[in-house]
Amino acid sequence: MTEQTIPVTVLSGTLGAGKTTTLNHVLRESDDRDLAVLVNDMGEVNVDADLVAESSDISTEEEELVELSNGCICCELRGDLLDAIGGLTRNRDFDAIVVESTGVAEPLPVAQTLTLGFDQSDLDPTEFYEETGIEPLENCHLDTAVTVVDTHQFHEAMQSDEILDDDGTKKHLGDLLVEQVEFCDVLLLNKCDLVDEATLTEIEDTLEILQPRAEIIRTTHGRVDVDDIIETGRFDFEEASRSAGWIQELQEPHESAEEEHGVTSFVFEAQRPFHPERFAELLDAFPENVVRSKGHFWLAGREEMALMLNVAGRSIRVAPAGNWIATLPPEEREAQFEAYPELEEKWDEQWGDRGSQLVLIGTEMDHESIREHLELCLLTDQEMNADWDTFEDRFPTFEIPDEDEATEADAPEQDGQEEIGLAD
Ligand SMILES: Nc1nc2c(ncn2[C@@H]2O[C@H](COP(=O)(O)OP(=O)(O)OP(=O)(O)O)[C@@H](O)[C@H]2O)c(=O)[nH]1
């Protein structure tokens, strides 16, 4: 992006991770920068904005500090976010803008809004402008996506069953945490004072494998070098969308070496379908040391559509991953082969591209044992010849989509994709 436009930093992180603390630190340390701040809070009373006003030296004149309440900038306030930034920058130039998201916000849609709104993406923004009624803002660019992690509660959050209600949209805490970690440029491991060194390095190892591209910085009370999160020039939408560890792992599968704290990853691949009941039982008792698993799979009896497995901590979700290429008319199939030449290499004469490819990331995982358990869920030779429709299948059923969605497992999730928990 051009250097003349105003760099925007977005701070994400779960509730209480330390976003406001970090923001206040940045404000205190930025005497030489003219900063504008935009705080999104879901409550009636915007406590965060009050804190910002209280402990920072900037005046709270409207043009420098904007609160967006009663909604979330990753969903219903997307247009308002851009309006607010437009309002801030219309008559004044700032050195940088910092946006503090709510604890339930997903960074990807916020980044999408900003890159489209700043006309900073290769995507065609016409539909977006029509939907939101906003004008592109050409005087800003999304510069850095920062995620603040509560290091002290990281393990707890990953093992938690807590469901967050984002104005009607239910979200699992572990899911949200993983989404925030997987989509960012800088990861602040905050609250380091509450965690011993061994735990810290273990979490660092885990985060590095979940998000290999981000710079990981340890902080206490959000005390970060301001230049590490403001005007870094690190943000790139395409790169950020593809930076998650599980995507990297699928692109270049390798059995990762055992780290000091036993954080590893591997890819499980199979060209036979899973038995629906055996695989459901495995997911019901999924090993707790797997912190993340993602990829597509083939369930016997579902020969039209690939399913997507999405495990983040204790959250296990299954979603449609699009039709198998093998079900497409020949000309469309050819187009897919051209776009993804590697598809042809794995093509099976009888089953085409049907198969499973799952990335598993975890701590102290026994790869062999997990592999064996997964293999035991595959159909046996005898079952391969049985009538697959007679197998008990308690996975959710999904409508076959009209549009051809990419079926390769490393495709980023489609916006608006319905995801349903197996246990629900
Ligand atoms: N011990 C310790 N406490 C911290 C640290 N950083 C923040 N806190 C405290 O954690 C609490 C939450 O911090 P906030 O900065 O309000 O967190 P937040 O992410 O803005 O929270 P929400 O706006 O509710 O999502 C506050 O009481 C902070 O003082 C840290 O590094 N160590």
Automatic annotation (TrEMBL):
<keyword id="KW-0547">Nucleotide-binding</keyword>
<dbReference type="GO" id="GO:0000166">
    <property type="term" value="F:nucleotide binding"/>
</dbReference>
<feature type="domain" description="CobW C-terminal">
    <location>
        <begin position="263"/>
        <end position="378"/>
    </location>
</feature>
<dbReference type="InterPro" id="IPR051927">
    <property type="entry name" value="Zn_Chap_cDPG_Synth"/>
</dbReference>
<dbReference type="InterPro" id="IPR027417">
    <property type="entry name" value="P-loop_NTPase"/>
</dbReference>
<dbReference type="Pfam" id="PF02492">
    <property type="entry name" value="cobW"/>
</dbReference>
<feature type="region of interest" description="Disordered">
    <location>
        <begin position="398"/>
        <end position="424"/>
    </location>
</feature>
<dbReference type="GO" id="GO:0016787">
    <property type="term" value="F:hydrolase activity"/>
</dbReference>
<protein>
    <submittedName>
        <fullName>GTP-binding protein</fullName>
    </submittedName>
</protein>
<comment type="similarity">
    <text>Belongs to the SIMIBI class G3E GTPase family. ZNG1 subfamily.</text>
</comment>
<dbReference type="Pfam" id="PF07683">
    <property type="entry name" value="CobW_C"/>
</dbReference>
<keyword id="KW-0378">Hydrolase</keyword>
<feature type="compositionally biased region" description="Acidic residues">
    <location>
        <begin position="400"/>
        <end position="418"/>
    </location>
</feature>
<dbReference type="InterPro" id="IPR003495">
    <property type="entry name" value="CobW/HypB/UreG_nucleotide-bd"/>
</dbReference>
<dbReference type="InterPro" id="IPR036627">
    <property type="entry name" value="CobW-likC_sf"/>
</dbReference>
<dbReference type="InterPro" id="IPR011629">
    <property type="entry name" value="CobW-like_C"/>
</dbReference>
<keyword id="KW-0143">Chaperone</keyword>
